[in-house]
Amino acid sequence: MAKSRNSKDMNRFLIAEEEIDDYEETWRHTYNQEQSLMDAVREGHTDTAIELSHLMDNDSGRLSTNELEHWKKVAIIGISLCSRAAIEGGLPPKDAFRISGYYIRRTDHFSDSESMLTLRDDAIRDLTNLVSDGIKSRQYSIYTRQCMDYIEKHYREKIYLDEIAELLGISPSYLSRLFKSETGENIQDYLVRIRVDRAANLLRFSDESLSRIAQYVNFPSQSYFGQAFKKLRGITPAAFRKQYQSIDWTP
Question: Hey, which CATH number is domain 140-244, 1.10.10.60, 1.20.1090.10, 3.40.47.10, 3.20.20.70?
């Protein structure tokens, strides 16, 4: 009986959808956008992935008669698609599922569509950036990869070029030249970027003060932290927190 009732409901839905003007063309267009979005994630193109997700928002069909439920489903579908694409792009499945699971659970805490889509964009950004990092790391020499690994593990400490070079068994000048030629930035700039990235996560997901965050990621002063953050992110730490932090964050 249930199966028969479901079949009738499905038939009524399909008939109603067929009556919508340009039904087939609309969904073909949306499908192509979806494939382009997944390609962008697989290839680590973050800005393109975000832009495509915004285009799809305007073209997707209605997923619920309730406005908020519609956008919640749009967000969940987008996160799930990008998680799958990130795995295909080389991100370990456990990392992709951990990130997508976190963001999907967060959709239960929002009551407006704008916050829901911002959350979706954050998930796409995190997944695609990790794919991009993986692609880049596979292109680097073992010395550059090891240098990056050391910085990412010890960014809260004082880091000296001589110490890293000694650990790797090469000269500081060679390591400096190699890192610059392969990454396009010097080691100090890379260190600052890692510290800014870690600080950005703390600004979004904690209520620690700016001075405490600056100290935690080992910037010498809050003013230097602010200057470095604005240079790399185009916005001050305080403005970034106001823009991205969820009002219902709990430790």
Answer: 1.10.10.60
